Amino acid sequence: MSTGEDLLRAHGLRVTRPRLAVLEVLTEGGHLEVEDIARKARARLDSVSTQAVYDVLGALSRAGLARRIEPAGSPARYEARVGDNHHHIVCRGCGAIADVDCAVGERPCLSPGDAQGFVLDEAEVTFWGLCPDCQARRRAEAAV
Fold first, then answer.
1. Are residues 58 and 101 in the same domain?
2. What pTM was computed for the model?
3. I want to staple 97 with a disulfide (CB 3.0 to 4.6 A). Which of 5, 10, 31, 139 is the partner?
4. 57 & 89 share domain
């Protein structure tokens, strides 16, 4: 199994403590906002500025080690699950995000009627709805 240092080097990035800390946070899973990533990275380091975390996330995203998603009306979030053309479900109630595997198992999952000469390698799909907790909350509110 590759270490964070190996991954950074393999993707042409210098190994720094902030990059290692942010990469560790992302590989724990989830769809994290920058402030959450910064807080968790600070727990691993003596200190790291929010701007440094933004810089690290930009470098990791450009290198293909992180993925930035921005559901409509939400701040940017980052995840370490990259390169598999998966999609997301977003709860309209609480904003929770979950991964959804590619529907057809190959990239891209969808193709436009006219690709206008582009070679397509990914389709980004966001499904919207209510998570089980928000559904239960709405049922409880309706019963009152």
1. no
2. 0.85
3. 31
4. no
**Are residues 95 and 62 located together in one domain of the fold?**
no
Can you tell me the distance from the alpha carbon of 72 to that of 65, in angstroms, rounded to the nearest whole number? 23
At CB < 8 A and 24+ separation, what contacts does 106-110 make?
109/85
CATH number of the domain that 24 lies in?
Answer: 1.10.10.10
Q: How many residues are there in the chain?
A: 144
Please enumerate in sequence order all residues whose Cβ is within 8 A of that of 79, keeping only pairs 6 or more positions apart, or say none: 26, 29, 30, 31, 32, 66, 67, 69
